[in-house]
Write a structure and sequence with these properties.
The chain is an alpha/beta fold. It is built from 10 helices and 20 strands.
């Protein structure tokens, strides 16, 4: 746990789920720059304050006295905010936590934007929030200098109004946008739908749906394409989990290949789960094994020994940091929720060396298929050995 010193006091903050081995903090120089600027300028925060894209709750917790509305696409970020608010003594209801899929506020007096990695997510959210912005709204964005590009500024300019940036301080910048209420308040282009190629098994030629910010918004990525051509076929009324489901193309393929299978789609992105549900509904006829759609912390909500097959394409970035923490937790949780004889199938970049972690967690793993860049791995939960009863021994 680390402590962030702000103009409003010192806060103890962690990411979620808390991992003592994780060296990454719950804030960075961009968060500090914005908080310092607000205090130095004496920005009036007494009106309707909205914090968009706060990654781990550093901004929301720091400004809890002003009862902000936080809007995020990340379940983990939302949970981190709730935990950090409670840890630092915020009163119940000190902040309203909404997802990007929730109805936007009707009025915004101060809009603070933590620039996301996804330009599409930023575009979508600015379009959704622009109708609530008025001429007196203070709009300030923040991000590391490497996260703020000309295209970022053009989005603010086109959707909100005239935009400029600050000088860089500790490699962070601020964005200042002056609302122009004469700009057209038109919806953004999301969600996008696109057709799949014809050589990927049961999903060939079908259509997927992507809400803004979901991985590979307008095309099938080559790793998933490689995976789709090599997926196992579910047999009978088994329980399949699409872990880190994204737009749901893998889980939907499993549902089509195994009509009796039930499929649970899980992701920490609210937009991803909405995309997966749309993809599934558009492609799977009613009357199959059924599906569940869960926004959450990986497999934390699933009971032990409740799944027969887990399919996974693990992320290896947390915002802009490269880390294998998420993949390790996914593999460990999969081992817990799989029944004896159940299998975890993983596709990943070859250089990430997932086979080492899988052998540590499961005892062994098998290379199903190889590619110059990707590899498909299979790890199984060994069935418990049969034991003779005492009555049967001699």
């Amino acid at each position: 746990m680390n402590r962030l010193t702000t103009p409003w006091g010192e806060l103890a903050l962690t990411r979620f789920p808390e991992d003592p081995r994780d060296p990454l903090r719950a804030w960075d120089a961009a968060d500090e720059y914005l908080l310092r600027y607000l205090a130095e300028q004496g920005t009036d925060l007494s009106g309707e304050l909205v914090v968009l894209g706060d990654r781990w709750g550093a901004l929301t917790a720091s400004l809890a006295a002003y009862r902000p509305v936080q809007i995020t696409d990340s379940f983990l970020g939302q949970r981190a905010t709730a935990v950090n608010l409670a840890r630092n003594g915020a009163t119940e209801g000190a902040a309203e936590l909404r997802s990007v899929r929730d109805t936007p506020p009707e009025r915004i007096d101060v809009l603070l934007v933590r620039v996301p990695k996804s330009l599409a997510l930023l575009e979508d959210q600015l379009h959704r929030l622009a109708p609530a912005v008025h001429e007196g709204t203070v709009v300030i964005g923040t991000g590391m200098a490497t996260e703020i590009h000309t295209s970022t500024l053009k989005l603010f300019e086109r959707i909100i109004g005239p935009t400029r940036t600050s000088l860089a301080v500790r490699k962070a910048r601020l964005i200042f946008s002056t609302p122009d209420t004469s700009l057209p308040r038109t919806p953004g282009p999301w969600p996008l739908r696109y057709g799949l190629p014809d050589d990927i098994g049961v999903m060939s030629g079908r259509t997927v749906t992507n809400h803004a910010g979901v991985f590979c918004a307008d095309r099938l990525d080559i790793g998933t394409r490689f995976f789709l051509g090599r997926l196992p076929v579910p047999r009978g009324p088994v329980h399949v989990v699409d872990l880190g489901c994204g737009n749901g193309v893998v889980g939907t393929a499993a549902a089509l290949a195994g009509p009796e299978a039930s499929v649970t789609f899980v992701d920490e992105s609210f937009s991803a789960v909405a995309s997966a549900e749309a993809t599934y509904r558009d492609n799977v006829p009613e009357g199959g094994g059924g599906a569940a759609f869960t926004v959450g912390d990986g497999l934390a909500g699933l009971p032990d020994s409740s799944a027969d097959l887990v399919l996974c394409n693990p992320p290896f970035h947390s915002h802009r940091a490269t880390t294998d923490t998420t993949a390790r937790r996914m593999f460990t949780d999969a081992r817990r929720v799989l029944r004896p004889g159940g299998e975890l199938w993983v596709v990943g970049n070859r250089h990430l060396g997932y086979h080492v972690t899988l052998r540590r967690v499961f005892g062994d793993c098998e290379v199903v298929a190889g590619h110059p860049k990707f590899v498909v791995l299979r790890a199984a939960v060994r069935a418990a050995p049969l034991r003779r009863s005492r009555a049967g021994t001699r």
